[in-house]
Amino acid sequence: MYLLLPMDSDNVQEAQLVKVFDAKVWAQVLVEEGEVVEINHAPSYEAFENISEAVVFVDDFENPMPFMEYNMMPLVAHTQRSIDEIVEAFLFRELHDMAF
Length: 100
Description:
- The protein is α/β, with parallel strands linked by helices.
- The chain has a single domain (2-97), classed as Dinitrogenase iron-molybdenum cofactor biosynthesis domain (Nucleotidyltransferase, domain 5).
- It contains two helices and six strands.
- A six-stranded mixed sheet has the order 3-2-1-4-5-6, covered by helices on one side.
- The longest helix is centred in the last third of the chain and has 9 residues, at 83-91.
- The radius of gyration is 12 Å and the shape is globular.
């Protein structure tokens, strides 16, 4: 599954999840069988070759509609900020569905 993350940096170890408006770079994380297979970066969420299945927001106040047009499931990481934390929360189903 491809996860789409708005990030403040393309440094995988130090990048933090940010609001969509504040995103400097987008990370697309491929998770298969409980492991991160690859991480790609792009300046726009529309620039990736593969369509992401889910987008992760920092809170419930983001606008999910542009992503839902691509059939992405909006998820919220209320406390997780790093890629590792977000992937772990996704695997353990600790990311929340967005409250509309």
